[in-house]
Amino acid sequence: MKKLILLMNVLMITAVLSCNNTKQAEPGNNSPEITEHKGQASVEDTESAANALTVAKSLPDFTTLVAAIEAAGVEDAVVNAGPLTVFAPTNAAFNKLPKGTVDDLLKSENKSKLAYILTNHVAPANYPDVQLIKEAEKGRKLYMASGQYLDVKKTDEGISVGGTKILKTVKVSNGWIHVIEDVLVPVE
Q1: By the 8 A CB rule, do 176 and 127 touch?
Q2: How remote is the C-alpha of 50 from its chain's centroid?
Q3: Cβ atoms of residues 180 and 89 within 8 Å
Q4: Which CATH number fits domain 45-180: 3.40.309.10, 2.30.180.10, 2.40.50.180, 1.10.1200.10?
Q5: Which residue, 17, 22, 52, 141, shows the most beta carbons closer than 10 Å to its own?
Q6: Cα–Cα distance list, 23 to 20, 43, 46, 74, 122 (Å)
């Protein structure tokens, strides 16, 4: 059953990421087609509960994460219906990376690498903190959208995922955001 749910989430994310509108060039003009992204993240909704991306955009501690999500073009994946769990590094977490790393990752030629790193911060499942504790007690690892598995541990200091501490948990319309103190760089 979990495999079926995971497959459905992956298919939904893939479908959402492929949503593009194409504008034709002006008649008589030999310029190429212009592709304009108009996926789910471009929908403005002031009535529904906030999703993971809406919440991240509203908080000053996540400006680097939001810039990375937009540079990688994965906005639609973060706003899909879910459930999903986002482990959201703060600006301070990105600042811990070696100097120049973030600027380098934000370059267009590194879009796929950045997207891979960001998908390592998303579990296509519903993991509130209570469930994370259960997973830790059972010695289970969390499957991430990157294809990697991350350890989840419970200590006297709290819960950690992938070796980084969860600082705060926020419920959003499409799942959960767990604020973390480090960037979860996938092991290749």
Answers
A1: yes
A2: 15
A3: yes
A4: 2.30.180.10
A5: 52
A6: 10, 18, 27, 21, 32
